[in-house]
Each structure stands twice: as C-alpha cells, then as structure tokens.
Amino acid sequence: MHDMATEQAFGARGPHRGGDKARSAPPSATEAIPLTWGTLGLETMASLLVVSMDRLSSRCYAARCQWPRLHPLNDRAVTAVPHHPLIMLESTRQLATAVELGRPAAGRATLEAVSVNLGLRLRARPLERGSATDVAVRVSVSDLVTDAGSLVAHRVTAEYLHAGEPFGSCTIRLVRSADTAAPRDEPAEPGLLHPSAAAVGAAAESDVMLARASRGHLVIAPRDPGHPVLLAGRPEHLPLAAVLEAGRQAVLLSSGMTASAVVGLEVDVRTRVPLRGARIETKAEAGGSRFLVTVAGRLAATGTVMLWGP
Asked: What segment(s) does the record annotate as region Disordered (predicted)?
C-alpha cells in the first residue's frame, strides 16, 4: 500500500536512470534561475532548501535540494533520521516561488498555496546519517491562469529522487487570494491540554499544533506561536503547511499510529484558518483518515492522511 500512494504521481516513467541528477537539456535550452534566501522571501539563510534550479523548457525545470539532518521538524535521533514529510512541501513551495520569479516583474502577483497532494515511497525514502541529504527534483508547471498578463494561479508538481530512485512527489496549487482580511481567532477555551509530542508524531513539544478542550474536542492551538517553520514570519492566519501538520497530528493522535506510518498527505484550504481555536475532527477510512477543520461552525479545510498498513 505504501508504494501505491505515489504511483499515480510518478506515472509510468519508472525510476530515473541517470543517478541523482535530473535529466539534462541541451545547453541552449537550459536557463539557471538565481536563488537566495532573500529572493525566495525566507527569514533566514538556514531556511533555504533549494540549492539550484535550471529551466529546461517553458514549463519544466531540474532542481537540487539539500535537506539538513538537524532541520527543526526532524527527530534528533543519534542514528539514521528520516526527513519530515513537510520538508518536501516546503521545498516545493520554494520551487514554486522560484518559478514565479522567472516571470517578468510586471507579470508577478503574490500567490498563496491553497491545496497540496503529497506522497511517499517508504522503501526508497532516504535516511540521513550525516549532515544533510542531497535530493534531485524534477519540476513541472501546469494549469496556468493569467489576468491582464499577471499570473493568478498555477499548479507545481515536484518529483523527488535520491540515489536515482524516486521516493516522493508533491503537488501544490497556488492562487492569488481575493481574501486579504485576517481571520479572527476563535474565542479562547478554558482548560486546554496539549498532547505530548510523541502522541502526535512530532519531534519536539514546541511542534505540537493541537490541544484538547474541556469538552473533549480538539482545537488547533500551536504551542509555539513563532514556530520557525510552521509559523515563519508571524503570519496573520495559518499557512497551508500548518493546517496540514495539524491534520497529520490529529489523525496520528486518534489512530494511535506513529509518524513512520504516514505515506500520503492531502489538504484543501477553502477559507483562511485563524491562528488558534479552529476545531479539527477526524474520521477513519480505508487506508487512512480524513480530517475536517471548521471555524465558527463552517468548513474551512478538508484533508486526508494516508497510513501504511498490512
């Protein structure tokens, strides 16, 4: 089952045959996109995951990423460390920003990620025993929508390879948001209790995104309101990655499964989710669980966490 989670995303091309390097294009067709932590809108140099990115055609790119073993979301194990799946999502988001930078300045608009579909092949997933993992990426862009020459929506798909073997894929959809108002936090509930990091598959207590209210329901309540990854830059609402992580944690808490059982993640954010107080519910299904995020009784986001099982 864990190999099936990404089979559709990888298609029928099979594993890459040229080692870790993405397939090259003729020199005349390759155009490098300059990348710095500043141009990608990151707060620190340490947040930069994309090392290089080359344009192969109008909608295809070859990139390289480097994932540090001591990334804030990773376990601090003394042996082999599997990378947190949200590192793949953040890499894809940075790649999408680089794609947007490749457009003329007059045609750029601030886009917001509103949906993601992420899959893992556990048997091919790299384990890091040193300082960092070098990853090759094949990037494609589709479903471009423009308005008066400005890009207002597109979809970016990134296929990740290590040692020539595909181990994961991530597709995100980005749109120009018409909703600029920050959502209000839900009224604070008394007696909130945060679960332990181990119970929700988090590496540290500061990564916990949930709390249980006195009446027993779960709400989104980040333990660290300035989390360097999930809430970087002190946003006015929960970014896509934070909503997805809250859903992942809620499913692991309700199912009793561990983080290593996750083989796929999906989320679709319909309206902006406040930083605290949104309710989150889970429902077990074949192959995993769905989660629902509601704000003031209205559906704000839906998602799925796919779990490996016999």
From this structure: 1-29
Tokens of 133: 């993992």
CB 124 within 8 A of CB 164: no
Q: Read off the pTM.
A: 0.86
Q: Which CATH number fits domain 198-307: 1.10.10.60, 3.30.70.270, 2.40.160.210, 3.40.50.2300?
A: 2.40.160.210
The pLDDT tens digits for 92-101 are: 999 999 988 8
Residue 279 φ then ψ, to 5°: -80, 150
Q: What is the mean pLDDT of residues 203-210?
A: 96
Task: Domain ranges for the chain, please list them.
Answer: 4-175, 198-307
CA 238 vs CA 167, 170, 173, 271, 310: distances in Å: 28, 20, 16, 10, 34
| Spatial contact of 203 and 258, defined as CB atoms under 8 Å apart | no
CATH domain 4-175 topology? Thiol Ester Dehydrase; Chain A (3.10.129)
CA–CA gap between residue 49 and residue 47 (Å, rounded): 6
Residue-level pLDDT at 272: 93
